[in-house]
Amino acid sequence: MKKENILPGLFTITRMLLGWHLFYEGLVKVTNPDWTSAPYLANSRWIFSGIFNHMASSPGIMQVVDFMNAWGLTLAGLALLLGVFIRISCLGGSLLLLFYYLAYPPIPGFMFGVPNEGAYLWVNKNLIEMTVLAAMAFIPGN
């Protein structure tokens, strides 16, 4: 089989897998009335922690941040699953993942006490997914 025949299918599968991940992460947040990103933001410790801590300390800002986070993930993921608005969904998803990475980068000394799925050093799933989504936003035909 030629790679020209395989690549579109691999891109579609990758898009749908990323879409499912974003959609489900968002849906869990949207359907839980008690969910808030405030504790996540309040415990940020890296260079941008002041910004994230400030967001967490303001109920008004948190309403906007939580709404945009939950619905941004849900809608970007759904669009990627359905194959509509792919470019904007990839860029929006990348932006959300960039914020997650900046709040908790896997840098030694900044991860102590942070719940983690594994052992990371500089690179984690947020950075990988962000990069793949950003790249997919610029693939011709999307």
Helix content: 55-70%
Given helix and strand content, the structural type is mainly alpha
What's the alpha carbon Rg, rounded to whole Å?
A: 16 Å
Query: What's the number of extended β-strand segments?
Result: 0
Number of helices: 6
Task: Write down the secondary-structure element order.
Answer: HHHHHH
First-to-last CA distance? 23 Å
Strand content: under 5%
In short:
The protein is an all-alpha fold and 142 residues long. Helices cover 68% and strands 0% of the residues.
What features would you describe in this structure?
The protein has 142 residues and is mainly α. It contains 6 helices and no strands. It has helices at 3-30, 38-42, 49-57, 59-82, 86-103, 125-137.
Structural topology:
Elements: H1 3-30, H2 38-42, H3 49-57, H4 59-82, H5 86-103, H6 125-137
Helix pairs in contact: 1-4, 4-5, 5-6
For this entry, give a set of tags:
mainly alpha
